[in-house]
Structures are given as structure tokens and as C-alpha cells.
From TrEMBL:
UniProt keyword list: Membrane, Transmembrane, Transmembrane helix
Residue intervals passing through the bilayer: 26-45
InterPro entries per the UniProt record, alphabetical: TPR-like_helical_dom_sf (IPR011990)
Organism field: Allosphingosinicella flava
Protein's UniProt keywords contain Transmembrane: yes
Lineage top rank: taxon: Bacteria
Keyword Transmembrane recorded: yes
SUPFAM superfamilies cross-referenced by the UniProt entry: TPR-like
Residue runs in coiled coils: none
Any single Pfam family the record assigns to this protein: TPR_14
UniProt protein name: Tetratricopeptide repeat protein
Position of the signal peptide: none
Length: 213
């Protein structure tokens, strides 16, 4: 998968973040938009997902300032959840390139709050970054645990689908998002987010087909 395709998939995540943050106003909205765009561009520029042998070194050598989850979590879950301090600390480790430290911090939080769905989502997000974009078995387990703890909340399946799409698992992401739509009320505000992402995944899948021999 070429780097420009990865950029398109990250643009999918940016779009979701913008939709979720749509209620913000003024300077705070501008800051959120800028940070999300910088995060997507930085991954597309530095990630080089096609170079499998370079992935472990790349993850350790670069810092990732923001992810779609880190940018949207306060708007989705509130600022004063017990997970906040642990995830903020984990963000700092990730931003300076210590992705293992970022994972370890969230795991420490989970030892204190084992039933916190936001921390489980944070662990999944940290594991995906540590795996340089790959959805590892541990990341899958964390996403699924978050879904069991917050079955009515769209975030576990929304961010799980983003991670799958960025890793190239288009079909699995589509199944997850279509199930989310089937379970969502007709007037749910997140339906448009999921529908837009499904369209972008279709476009990315078509672009991938046209570039292959």
C-alpha cells in the first residue's frame, strides 16, 4: 500500500474527528482542526507503511503528537473522567517517541481502573501506534474489551474501524461500521460520520485496485 493511500485513510480519521468536534467554536475549533491535519500529514510523511522491515525502528524514532482518538476523546467522553490523567501522561510519552512507555502508562491506569472503557480504548490506540499502524492481537483485544464495557457508545467501534482501515483491512472495517449503523438510532449524530467513512473506504479500495497490476 502506497503512502498516498495511507494519507487518504488518515484523512478518513481526520474527517471523523472534525465531525465529532463540530460543536466547538472559534479558536478552539481552529486548534483542533490544525492538530488533526498535522497528525494525519505527519503519519503519511513518516510512516512508510510499505517498508515492513522499517516499522519497529520508525515507531521508536519518531514522536506522534496526536491521534484521532487523543484529539476527540474529551469531546466524546468528557474531561474529568478517571482516565484523563493517565491518557494525558501517555500522550506525552508517545509525543516524544517512547511508544512502549505510552502503552505501559495506560496499562498502569487499567490496573487501578480495570473497567474503564476509555482507558481500554486508549490502550488500543497506544498499541496501534506502538505497532506502527498494525492492529495487533493485543490491540484487537483492547478494542473489543472497550466495546463490551461501553456497548451503547459508538466510540469503540468507530475507532476500531479507523485502525482497521488505516492498516488496510477495508472489509473488516466496513463490517464493523455497518453493524454500528444497524445498531444506531435513525437520528444518531454519529451516523453521518460512519457513512462518510464508508464512502472513503470504498474510494480507497477502488484506488488500490486501479494501482495494482
Amino acid at each position: 500500500m502506497t503512502s498516498w493511500l495511507i494519507f487518504l485513510l488518515l484523512a478518513l480519521a481526520v474527517l471523523a474527528g472534525l465531525r465529532w468536534l463540530g460543536g466547538m467554536r472559534g479558536a478552539s475549533l481552529q486548534f483542533a482542526l490544525s492538530a488533526l491535519l498535522i497528525a494525519a500529514a505527519g503519519y503519511a510523511w513518516q510512516g512508510r507503511p510499505g517498508l515492513r522491515e522499517a516499522r519497529p525502528a520508525a515507531a521508536a524514532e519518531r514522536g506522534i503528537a496526536q491521534t484521532p482518538f487523543s484529539m476527540a476523546r474529551k469531546e466524546l467522553f468528557g474531561q474529568f473522567d478517571a482516565s484523563g490523567a493517565w491518557l494525558t501522561l501517555s500522550d506525552g510519552y508517545r509525543a516524544r517517541g517512547d511508544t512502549k512507555g505510552a502503552v505501559d502508562i495506560v496499562r498502569s491506569g487499567l490496573r487501578k481502573y480495570p473497567d474503564n472503557a476509555v482507558l481500554w480504548l486508549g490502550l488500543a490506540d497506544a498499541l496501534v501506534v506502538h505497532g506502527d499502524g498494525r492492529v495487533t492481537p493485543a490491540a484487537r483485544a483492547a478494542f473489543e474489551r472497550a466495546g463490551r464495557l461501553a456497548p451503547q457508545h459508538p466510540a469503540p467501534r468507530l475507532f476500531y474501524g479507523m485502525a482497521l482501515a488505516r492498516s488496510g483491512s477495508f472489509d473488516e472495517a466496513e463490517r464493523l461500521w455497518r453493524a454500528l449503523l444497524a445498531d444506531s438510532p435513525a437520528d444518531a449524530p454519529w451516523r453521518r460520520v460512519v457513512e462518510d467513512q464508508l464512502k472513503l473506504v470504498d474510494e480507497a479500495r477502488e484506488m488500490q485496485r486501479t494501482t495494482q497490476p
